[in-house]
Specification:
Elements: E1 2-7, H1 13-26, E2 30-35, E3 45-47, H2 56-74, E4 78-81, E5 93-97, H3 106-110, H4 115-134, E6 137-140, H5 143-152, E7 160-163, H6 170-175, E8 187-191, H7 201-210, H8 212-217, E9 220-224, H9 233-239, E10 246-248, H10 257-263, E11 266-269, H11 278-285, E12 290-293, H12 296-301, E13 307-310, H13 316-336, H14 350-358
Helix pairs in contact: 1-14
């Protein structure tokens, strides 16, 4: 089987993680994979210059034209689009993975802060509508996304829609059953996410400021993983006021992220919208209790027994509810020791994920 893959648009943390996880699995096929310039070229993998940075839009327009033409030369059996967009027809059966929550979630769109973001998402929806018409299969990561897709778009009869959960890396899976040490004091929460408006980091900082003294007394520490840029500089100016509670680790390489799951107690996940949320699956593999924003995407992905669902918006009730939940987790950890953690959940390995993606 010949496979042609377009992955040049997978530059965000979540989408790049998926690409990194499955590149080796793609090597088992007769495949050509085009990736963004943040990934190095290797056998069967071609890094496209200027696919990130200031000229990325121009590069992607030209690449879409090239990719369509090349598909008729290469004549693959399957064409895999790893992130949302492929408006031009291609030779072979085309499968598109939807990774952008704004494409299907109106609430997330309403939460966008800037005019620039709103305009970009408007045009992205237009391109995605065109992509649907050229697809054979659209893949989403949860039943919630599937419902939203049908709400927002008219899906042609020839297009199949499938739900395919995200995979975890072999590295992550291998370390998920490793024994962990646990301190009876304090609570360490982690939110491993880059900054995007819908990720809701601001909620964490406002919460920490509101309950700063109480969090310090109870030895509660919250770890975030941001790299400063023009879009999130306002968060870094706020960090100084809560520096004994909120700690920024910077972006963590995927191949060492397992160490954070082994040394933290809880996943805190305040995101307003997600296509899926890699961290929710990864934390589940390590048996971490999860405190997540009470949104439909979270209900579709997380188990009731190991998850605390809390509305995380800028309201007194939300901040109070999170503090109550943290107090409950502190007490549970003190009383139960290692039984504080949940039974690890199985997740798709990269090989199985690729097979499901291409429909084997």
């Amino acid at each position: 089987m010949k496979i042609l893959v377009n992955s040049i648009n997978t530059l965000s943390a979540g989408t790049k993680t998926i690409t990194d996880n499955v590149l080796n699995a793609l090597g088992e096929y007769n495949s050509i994979t085009y990736v963004g310039d943040v990934v190095k070229s290797s056998k069967g993998v071609i890094s496209v210059p200027f696919s990130s940075g200031k000229v990325k839009l121009f590069t992607r327009v030209l690449f879409e034209l090239y990719f369509s033409i090349f598909s008729y030369v290469y004549r693959p059996n399957k064409v895999l689009i790893f992130a949302n967009y492929s408006p031009l027809p291609c030779y072979g059966e085309k499968h598109i993975l939807v990774r952008n929550p704004y494409l299907v979630d109106k609430e997330a769109n309403d939460e966008l802060y800037s005019i620039k973001d709103k305009v970009l998402e408007f045009f992205r929806r237009i391109v995605f509508k065109l992509s649907i018409k050229t697809a054979d299969t659209i893949l989403v990561q949860s039943a919630y996304m599937e419902d939203k897709l049908y709400e927002v778009y008219s899906i042609p009869k020839h297009v199949r829609v499938k739900v395919l959960a995200n995979p975890v890396s072999e590295n992550m899976a291998n370390f998920s059953n490793k024994e962990r040490a646990i301190s009876p004091e304090g609570l360490k929460l982690i939110y491993p996410s880059r900054y995007y408006p819908h990720k809701n980091h601001l909620f964490i900082l406002k919460f920490a400021k509101r309950y700063y003294g109480r969090l310090i007394v109870n030895k509660v520490k919250i770890y975030i993983t941001l790299t400063e840029n023009a879009d999130n500089s306002f968060l870094f100016s706020m960090l100084a006021d809560v520096s004994s509670v909120v700690f920024n680790l910077g972006e963590i390489p995927q191949n060492s992220l397992f160490e954070e799951y082994l040394t933290k107690d809880v996943l805190l996940f305040p995101s307003i919208s997600e296509t899926f949320g890699n961290s929710l699956i990864e934390a589940g593999c390590f048996g971490l209790p999860i405190v997540v924003n009470d949104k439909p995407y979270a209900r579709a992905v997380c188990d009731e027994g190991s998850t605390s669902f809390i509305a995380m918006n800028d309201s007194d009730e939300s901040y109070k509810h999170l503090m109550i939940t943290i107090n409950e987790l502190l007490q549970k950890k003190k009383n139960t020791g290692t039984d504080f953690f949940c039974r690890p959940k199985a997740a798709l390995a990269p090989n199985a994920w690729i097979k499901a993606f291409i429909g084997e």
